[in-house]
Design a protein that fits this description.
Blueprint lengths: L1 H40 L10 H12 L2 H34 L1 H14 L8 H8 L3 H25 L3 H9 L4 H12 L1 H25 L5 H10 L3 H33 L1
Helix pairs in contact: 2-11, 3-4, 3-6, 3-9, 3-10, 4-6, 5-6, 6-9, 7-8, 9-10, 9-11, 10-11
């Protein structure tokens, strides 16, 4: 019976999956067609909406320059450092708030109030504290990353089955043992969701900081292309960055799925 249900669900999902893929492809093609029509319409000032061939050539030129990979490495290093610092701190704070109702009531409202605040307003402070080089960009990215991870982990802590907690306490597990053996395995999905959100905002925070004050990194390349009105190069940078961000997000998602499967 179970096998029959599985086959029925598989047969139902397969055509739907094909239809969804076709619809997605149609949306992308329609957007590209609209873009090309706008670029040829003459409604916009020169190169504000460059043609797709011009953007494609700019992508090829961009990827053929060794300097681009230096700037890409700078931004990637800053984002990874921001994710490690902000995510690690958010994980610790989330565990603390999720395990203590008193601390949650006292401090969690601040996280909800500050979380939606645009973190770029703190960038002048980061410059004064950490200077104009990479540490200030990492600090802004870490600050952006901290809030979604902390809130996601705190919420995940409250959803842990109480039976698991009682089992751990019945074996007289210490706090570190409870974290390693009970809390973290039971919160794989909330943690990975927080990491995915944290990765996105860490990338945004780092790039914003690079566009404001920097002489290296992808944000610097984007604002430099904009300043010189080289629109095809600017869009090429944005496209490559968009593809890399999608790949990183998919990788984190696959890692989370693999971790959950291993836990089962």
């Amino acid at each position: 019976m179970a096998e029959a249900d599985r086959l029925t669900r598989s047969a139902w999902y397969e055509p739907q999956s094909a239809s969804v893929t076709l619809l997605r492809a149609a949306i992308v093609l329609a957007l590209l067609a609209v873009w090309e029509l706008l670029s040829r319409s003459g409604w916009f000032y020169r190169d504000v909406v460059p043609s797709l061939p011009a953007i494609g050539r700019a992508v090829v030129v961009l990827l053929s320059h060794e300097d681009y990979y230096f700037h890409l490495g700078v931004t990637a290093g800053e984002v990874v450092a921001a994710l490690a610092i902000g995510g690690g701190t958010g994980l610790a704070v989330g565990l603390l708030l999720g395990s203590s109702r008193f601390l949650a009531r006292a401090f969690e409202p601040y996280l909800y109030y500050l979380g939606p605040t645009p973190k770029i307003i703190f960038f002048p402070v980061m410059i004064m504290w950490f200077g104009v080089d990479s540490p200030s960009k990492v600090a802004l990215g870490a600050l952006s990353c901290f809030f979604p991870v902390a809130l996601s982990v705190a919420a995940g802590m409250r959803q842990i089955d109480k039976v698991l907690i009682r089992v751990g306490k019945s074996f007289r597990a210490g706090k570190l043992q409870m974290v390693a053996k009970i809390y973290l395995p039971a919160m794989r999905q909330p943690i990975m969701n927080g990491v995915r959100l944290g990765l996105g905002v860490a990338l945004i925070g780092t790039l914003l900081a690079e566009t404001k004050l920097s002489n290296k990194g992808i944000g610097f390349l984007i604002i430099n292309a904009y300043s010189t009105f080289d629109m095809p190069r600017m869009y090429a940078n944005l496209i490559v960055l968009f593809v890399l961000a999608i790949g990183a997000n998919a990788l984190v998602g696959r890692l989370g799925a693999a971790t959950s499967a291993a836990g089962r």
